[in-house]
Amino acid sequence: MSRTAPARRLRLGLPRRVFSQVLLMQLAIAAGVAVLATGLFLAPLSNQLDDQAMRRALAIAQTTAAEPQIAEQVKDTPPLPSGPVQREAERIRRATGAEYVVVMDWRGVRWSHPTRSEVGRTVSTDPGQALAGKEIMQIDSGTLGRTARGKVPLYDTHGKIVGAVSVGIAYDSVRARLIHAIPGLFAYAGGALAVGALAAWLISRRVQRQTRDLAFSDISGLLAEREAMLHGIREGVVALDRAGRIRLLNDEARRLLGIGDEAVGRSPDEALGDGRTADVLAGRVTGTDLVTVRGQRVLVANRMPTDDGGAVATLRDRTELEQLGRELDSTHGLIDALRAQDHEHANRMHTLLGLLELEMYEDAVEFVGEVVGDHRATAEQVTEKIEDPRLAALLVGKATVAAERGVALWVSDRTRLPDRLVDPSGLVTIVGNLVDNALDAAAGAPHARVEVELRTEGRTAVLRVRDTGPGIPVEQRELVFTEGWSTKEPPAHRGRGLGLSLVRKLAERQGGSATVGDAGGGGAEFTVVLPDALAEPQPALTAPTSQQAAEEES
């Protein structure tokens, strides 16, 4: 026997699409509001119609009681179905459309009634308040059913109460007026519901376009995934609204830019200050893989506009890659220098071999002394003036590279730098970038020369690097410190236009400055001033006196 799969139970509930859900909710709200408004309108309308009927009955009763002959006839004639009071009351009833006009004496005996057989009988409701001189309005039930009533006292010509007048308006007529008003109310409510339905449809269509017709559960899932992705990726993400204000930062962006939640709601200029980074985020600088420097970090930024007029910028930290690139440049330079030294060493060995073969021993000894002396002189010249070992080693290596490129690297005689640097790594970066830049400018020029002067004024270090290159025009002297600006073709592994920008940022970070001007005799002269670059000198240790030594021994 084959078994059939159990039938799937139908699930009743809201549809998944946002458009349908919003439309149904809006329609339910509009219908509820329409029903509530109709009910709230009908309740006071019923009370208002009741009040109008009671006031109308009271007015008819007051008008009837105001006729003096009725009071006199109640005093002088008996209560007869064909009496003058009955005839006058019926005339008034027919003229006003009232349900009844009852005239009674001070005992509550009727002198008039629409049912003639009731004339002469006592009224079915208590007339005490009216006979006591009060005017009454009420909804009550009597022999003619439920009516809206008005009761007033009946005075004779001497002002004495001789009876009362009671007028009733049939309650069915009041209800009929109310029922008659309901279709109009429903028409207005239906019109309001139709307008609400149209508005709900338009709103739902707009929500559908903005949410890409996703379900609320899908949107919730996307938001959760977005939060996890934004805070989990190792790229900085900055979202900006259509006004250019920052509306979102992930953890990596906060770390790379050095800002926190206080930047949200502010423009990049307000959050980051003036600079290329703010220009890139604001869209004033366009392009792909834009290189910018923030503090000591080298960042690569890309900016993508969004459909709502805002933008999303991504930031990648390329500081380590940039450092590796610079190390690679230095390595290439050293390799070229070693290759040149190898070639030069081979030539010198051949020369030495020739002198030995010719038995010119004294000339050979003199030649070896000259070669060794040149290298020793260069190293001694640097180390005598610069006591910091890292900076001295840098300049010795740069001198070898300069010699290979046909440029004379000279350390000025005024250079004096003690071994008390607060940030030696920063100064090494500054000197290396400036010397590399000067070598690039001077290479190929006649009498190519680069001079480095590094001296101190108290705790302030002043660095000057001069070259004999073409110089820098006045209008470009600020541009050379701008990130990404360069007159050279970028190498394959990294961008150009970062070295001088990094020099200025490092100098400004220490409260100093970096400027460029003309060097004497042509070329450019870069000047970097670093306040508080040197640590306080340590007090010299004095040798103990003979008396102190004796005391210590004892």
Automatic annotation (TrEMBL):
Q: How does it sit in the membrane?
A: Multi-pass membrane protein
Q: Which GO terms describe its molecular function?
A: ATP binding; phosphorelay sensor kinase activity
Q: Which reaction does it catalyse?
A: ATP + protein L-histidine = ADP + protein N-phospho-L-histidine
Keyword Transmembrane helix listed? The answer is: yes
Q: Where is this region: Disordered?
A: 535-554
* Major localization listed first in the record, in broad terms: membrane
- Compositional bias annotation for Polar residues: 543-554
InterPro entries in UniProt: HATPase_C_sf, HATPase_dom, His_kinase_dom, PAS, PAS-like_dom_sf, PAS_fold, sCache_3, Sensor-like_sf
Output a single Gene Ontology CC term carried by this record: plasma membrane
Q: Which UniProt keywords apply?
A: ATP-binding, Cell membrane, Kinase, Membrane, Nucleotide-binding, Phosphoprotein, Transferase, Transmembrane, Transmembrane helix, Two-component regulatory system
Query: What name does this protein carry?
Result: histidine kinase
Q: Which organism is it from?
A: Streptomyces griseorubiginosus
